[in-house]
Every structure is written in structure tokens, then in C-alpha cells.
Amino acid sequence: MAFNILIVDDSATVRAVISKALKLAEVPINELYQAGNGREALDALQKDWIDLVFCDISMPVMDGEQLVEAMKANGMIETIPVVIVSSAGSEPRVARLKENGVRDYIQKPFTPERIREVVDQVMGAVGHA
Amino acid sequence: MHSDKQDALCTTFLEVVEHLTFMFGEIVSKQEMPLGGRDFTLARMSFAGDLAGRLAVAVPADIKGEIAANILGLDPDDLQCRTMMDDALAEMLNVVCGHVIMALAGAEADFKLVTPETLDLAAENVASMVASDDFVGFMLDDNPVFLGLSLED
């Protein structure tokens, strides 16, 4: 099965690096979507069929924590798995995010192998692997 | 800057930059650094929470393409590198900042990062800015690079 993946980060560099890492890690991809902040991500989540979200924490307009809370409040998208990719992942914040349903946390800088490990773990856990 | 903090700052910066850009560096006395009349680009950002302050990095404008290329895994002449040079430098600072805060305040520190911004610095303005005690000098792949940290009390 190939996944529709949404990458949410205000940095075009990070979006490009995650895209490349997914390809290098040979993650089966059907469609890659991109959003520059949580608001754009919510629009994409409501408009498109997304299987997995990679999301930064610190972003303008709507940050990653706000996006996760907004997803949790919307029954149509609350079960879509979210993986945080950030350099601002202090222990209390990661714990808070996981309490809100975030599946995993990837610390920057990361390797394609780490991306693959998380995709296998998360998508396996929801029965798609 | 207190020497323990400066040690943590420098070590973290060099480790993160090596992982992210595959560029190797060493700390150098600012007085011995050859600026060579090069223009620089400054990336700066603030952070708040258990540790609050500002972090900035200044690099010669002519190595931004190499930094972007290394982060993106592309050729420096690739159009994508040329259009994303400032964004890549900002992202490098962003990653350094998260690691520096946790190195200084511990993994349990709660903090927020504010999106970095970049600005160009003419050669004549570089020396006065980096003369501040907040800035530390490095040679990164034989290029002068400055990192500045200012913490709120």
C-alpha cells in the first residue's frame, strides 16, 4: 500500500529534506502534500485523503500543538496519525503532544532510516503496513 | 559569557552543523579571523520559556549555497539551492537553537522557538557586530562563521 503523506513546516528546506528522506527510505508514497503552517494543513486534511502527517512544532499562523488540538476536535480527521519533526522537542512538550495523540517524535537532524522506522511503526500500528 | 555556557554552546553548534551540513569547524579567536571583505548573512531568532534569549549565526554570503546544498543533498549550482539559501541557513540556526537550549537548560526545559529571520550584512558592518562578547568565532571548512547567544536574566 502507498501512502498519502502531508508534510507541515514553514521551512521549504525542511519540507524538501523530509520529502527526500521519505524517498531515500523507500517509503511507499502515493501523493506528497505540503503545508507551510497548521492552518494550511487543516485545509489540506479536510480537502484531501491523508494517511500520515509529519509536522513541525514552531510555525507562524498555527503551530504544531494547535494543529494537533484542532485535529483532535474534528471527528473526521482526529484519527490521522501525526508525527512531530522538530528541534524544539523538550521532554515536557513531547509528553504533552503524545497525550494529545501524537504518535511519535523525530528530532532534527534525522536520517532516512529514522523516518522509515517511524513510518513502519506508526502505519503498522494502524494496520496499513 | 560564562565559560561553561560557552563550551556547551560551541560543542553543540559544531556537532549539529557537522550532522546537518557535513561541514567541520573549530573555535578560533575572533581577532585572528580573516574577514577578507566578504559580505555576510545573519540569521537570528529568539526563544522563550524556561530559557529565554536570542541566538544568531553570521556566515559569509558566498557559502550559503554550499550550506543549502549539503542540507538538501543537491549540487550547489542546483536552482533549488540558490532559491533556498536563506531558508536553509535559517533552518540550520533553528536546529542549532533547539539543541543549544537543551544543552544549557536540560532536556526537561520547556521552551518555544520563534521563526528565524535572515538579513544581509555588508562587509563593513560585520566586524563591529561580532566584536560583541556575545559572539564566538569559528572556522567552518576554512570560512569565518560567528555564533552569538544572548540570554535574558
Tell me what the structure shows:
- The complex is a heterodimer of chains A (129) and B (153).
- Chain A has helices at residues 12-24, 38-47, 64-72, 91-99, 112-125; strands at residues 3-8, 29-35, 52-55, 82-86, 104-107.
- Chain A contains five helices and five strands; from the N terminus they run βαβαβαβαβα.
- Chain A has a single domain (3-123), classed as 3-Layer(aba) Sandwich (Rossmann fold).
- By secondary structure, chain A is of the alpha/beta class.
- Helix content of chain A is 43%, strand content 20%.
- Chain A has a five-stranded parallel sheet with strand order 2-1-3-4-5, sandwiched between helices.
- The relative contact order of chain A is 0.19.
- With 153 residues, chain B is of the alpha+beta class.
- Chain B has a single domain (3-28, 38-151), classed as Chemotaxis protein chec (3-Layer(aba) Sandwich), CATH 3.40.1550.10.
- In chain B, 41% of the residues lie in helices and 29% in strands.
- Chain B contains five helices and seven strands, in the order αβββαααββαββ.
- In chain B, strands 1, 2, 3, 4, 5, 6 and 7 form a seven-stranded antiparallel sheet that branches.
- In chain B, α1 packs across α4 (85-105) and α2 (64-72) packs across α4 (85-105).
- The radius of gyration of chain B is 15 Å and the shape is globular.
- Chain B starts with a helix and ends with a strand.
- In chain B, 39% of the residues are buried.
- The model of chain B has no long low-confidence stretch (mean pLDDT 92).
- The chains are: A alpha/beta (129), B alpha+beta (153).
- The interface between A and B is medium-sized, with 22 and 30 residues.
